[in-house]
Specification:
Helix content: 40-55%
Number of strands: 6
Radius of gyration: 18 Å
Distance between the termini: 56 Å
Strand content: 15-25%
Number of domains: 1
Number of helices: 3
Structural class: alpha+beta
Largest sheet: 6 strands, antiparallel
Shape: elongated
Order of helices and strands: HHEEEEEEH
Length: 139
C-alpha cells in the first residue's frame, strides 16, 4: 500500500480542522479550571470519609484533560468511582456538556450543557459530582 491516499486524507482533514487547535487552546484554560474544581471537591470528599474511618469510600479517580473519545474537536475529563462515572466535555463553541452519572458499559444518562466558564457550569458540576458519589456509594 502506498501512502498517497493516506496523505490526501490527512491533507483534507488538516484543511478542514486548521482552526480547531486554536479554539481548543482558548477553551482549555476554563476547562482546566473546571477540572481543578472537581479535584478540590473530590479531595474534600476523600479526606472527610477517611477522617471518619470510611476509607473504602475514598477511591474516586479524576482523569486528565484529554481529547474527547467521541469528538475530534473536543476535550474531556472523567470522574470515576467503581463502575460509575461522569464525563465532562468541552466543546469548541465555548460550552461544557456533563454526561452521567452512569455505569460504565450502560447507556449514558441525559446530558446538561452550560456556557464555559459560568456559574451555571460550576453549579452543574457540583450537582453532578454529588449524584455520582451518591450512586456509587449506595449500599
Amino acid at each position: 500500500m502506498t501512502t498517497k491516499r493516506i496523505r490526501q486524507l490527512a491533507e483534507s482533514l488538516a484543511v478542514r480542522d486548521r482552526n480547531v487547535g486554536q479554539t481548543l487552546v482558548k477553551i482549555r484554560e476554563s476547562f482546566d479550571a473546571l477540572r481543578r474544581r472537581a479535584e478540590l471537591s473530590v479531595e474534600a470528599f476523600r479526606s472527610t470519609v477517611c477522617e471518619l474511618g470510611a476509607e473504602h469510600l475514598s477511591h474516586v479517580a479524576i482523569g486528565p484533560v484529554e481529547p474527547d473519545e467521541k469528538h475530534v474537536d473536543c476535550l474531556q475529563f472523567k470522574v470515576q468511582r467503581g463502575r460509575w462515572e461522569i464525563v465532562c466535555v468541552a466543546k469548541p463553541r465555548g460550552t461544557v456538556v456533563f454526561v452521567g452519572p452512569y455505569r460504565a458499559g450502560k447507556p449514558e444518562r441525559p446530558c446538561q450543557e452550560h456556557l464555559l466558564p459560568s456559574p451555571e457550569a460550576d453549579a452543574g458540576l457540583d450537582d453532578l459530582l454529588l449524584d455520582l458519589l451518591c450512586e456509587a456509594c449506595r449500599l
